[in-house]
Amino acid sequence: MRKNSKLGAEKASPRKVVRLRNNAKTIVLGVTGSIAAYKSAELASLLVKQGHQVFVVMTEDAAEFITPLTLQTLSKNPVMTSFFDEKENWRPGHIELADRASLLLIAPATAHIIAELAHGLAHHPLAAIALATRAPILLAPAMNGKMWLHPATVENVEKLKSRGVEFIGPEEGMLACGYEGIGRLWKVEDIAFRAEFLLARPENLIA
Ligand SMILES: Cc1cc2nc3c(=O)[nH]c(=O)nc-3n(C[C@H](O)[C@H](O)[C@H](O)COP(=O)(O)O)c2cc1C
Cβ(112) to ligand 1 under 6 A? Predict the structure, then answer.
């Protein structure tokens, strides 16, 4: 007879059980239509491993690069792609997520979402959440270097920074568009680390 069958069962299990810590937070992970969108899968996975509740909100274009099913599986939560996914609740799901979020992290963030956020547009759930939440916002841009350095993007980034939005990256390197230079998504491990830092900050509210 086995002395400790419980231990035996744990040994046999190939899965590592991830337990939510007491200080588990809700992170809304926004994913937009960049070639770097595939890296959001690893990022979602890291944030879950860090013990957080992760809710992915994708733009329509992001779904051309990575499937909601992948992100739903890795985040262990439903993925929001449209306002009209929200038919089960009287309370709009995007407002619920905006209120619940301890952090809104958009990675990768396209030039387009940066422009939308700078101008306060709310044409899809991710942009609406960015307007409605009072949680800190962290953007990890990824784009062609000329797009990043264009005065329109520079102005939009400055505008967002002046409102307390934080940025990580982009970094320099070989870009998918064939150019070498600034524009690559920052390393996902570092993005997850910065997210953790912002969540731990005592004054994690912006005006
Ligand atoms: C193959 C491909 C790769 C792209 N990569 C980027 C990118 O890295 N960054 C970016 O800002 N736009 C990129 N775009 C353009 C965006 O997909 C486009 O601006 C889109 O409207 C962004 O929409 P969204 O911000 O709502 O997701 C790419 C387009 C294609 C077809």
Answer: yes
